[in-house]
Amino acid sequence: MINKAAHSETAVRQQNFKTSFPLDISYIPIGVACGILLHAAGFNLFNIVLVSLLVFSGGAQFLIASMLTINSPLVTVVLMLFFLELRYALLGSSLSKYLHGQSTWFTFLFACSMNDENYAVNYLKFSTDKQFTPSDALQIEHWSLLFWTLSNFVGGVLGSAITIDLTVVHFALTALFLFMIVMQVKSLLKVLVAGLAAGLAIFFLVVTKSTLGLVFATLIASFIGFVIDNYLTKQRKKTQRKSPLLRMFKNPAGTPRE
Amino acid sequence: MEWNGLQHFFLVILCFFVALLPRFIPLSFFRKRKIPGWFNEWMEFVPICLFTSLVVKDLFITKTYSFSVTGMLPELIASVVVILIAFWTRSMALSVIIGLGLVFALTFLI
Question: How does the record classify its membrane topology (chain A) (predicted)?
Answer without folding.
Answer: Multi-pass membrane protein
